[in-house]
Amino acid sequence: MERTRIWSERFKLFFLNNRFVIFLFVLLLISLNIFVLSKIPYVFTPLIVLVKTVILPIILSGILFYLLNPIVNLLEKYKIKRIYSIIMLYILIIGILVLIVSLVIPVIQKQIQELIISIPTLYDKTVYQIQYWLGGDVFQQLQQSTNINPNELAQSLSERWAAIAGSGVSGFIHTFSGIGGFLGTLTEVIVSIVTVPFILFYLLKDGHNLPRYILKFIPVGLRDQTSKVMSEMNHQISSYIRGQIIVSFCIGILLYIGYNIIGMDYALILAVIASFTSIVPYLGPAIAITPALIVALVTSPIMLLKMVAVWTIVQLIEGKLISPQIMGKSLKIHPITIIFVILTSGNLFGVIGILLAVPGYAVLKVLVTHLFDWLKVSSNLYETDKVTEPTVEVDVKK
Prior knowledge:
Low-confidence stretches: 167-180, 386-390, 392-398
Distance between the termini: 56 Å
Structural class: mainly alpha
Oligomer: single chain
Order of helices and strands: HHHHHHHHHHHHHH
Mean pLDDT: 75
Largest sheet: none
């Protein structure tokens, strides 16, 4: 009887009175409910359709919110009402977009068309350089072993993209008319882009009240901790988005200046490609340098050396001056971890996964860190007993 009472007390102590065990039990019940409901298609299908519909405009609006919200907050400090600040900002953005469309887009389109038309020539020059360096026999054996005719492949690719660039949107749709669902995807993208300004307006207007609204649904005892978690998540996301976009823009500007100094062809389009791909840390610059290497290689060996010098200087400026000042060390994520996260997320979710890998990991890191801190406090699994050092008595008489 005594033994039964002891085991009953131990069971209450380690299970019923342990908040961590109760938490795991509740989590298990929730998971079982989700698993059972997932077997009923019509339960989660509307939710999945809803998420797929709103995910793109929400992501785009969120990125723009983190970029523009500091400006609105700054104008609000100067006694300008928030709604007037947003309207002024929208007018400024529209003016910048009109300026870009009228001045920059024609130059980019022209360089893209010239680059596409010159693909066969660039390919021939590249093959010649590779044959010259590696030897003709080695290249021919590689071509025969793969059963690929690079000349026909490059010519076909050039003709298709030249047709797309020359005929505009209608040619683009006509070229890919055989791809199922293209029009539907294009419509979804256009609708998402159109709805972004409206979502962004309300985010800028009322976004600062969102945390307080969310906290109303949280139990009173957890509100302080939840507020701290949301604040850290917001800081991580805002620091990364603003910092990475500003850094990428600076890289594009520096490369454009450098390419023009050395007289490199297609300087603007190559700089734009580098600017967009640099949004992905570490892997982006490796992708961006590839077209620049090809263009420099087919131009001349001297141009290749100049391009490598420009790229090295820009990367040094970015690594030593720009990123430390803009990004700082707010994320505190090891470069190897970032590369693994990007590769894994890209494998799982494609291009969207690559773009959202680092901020998603930063948010998950905040959640896991706070969850682990709560686990240490509530479970008593990480408490260490005080170790008493044995006292050694010294016999003075000896």
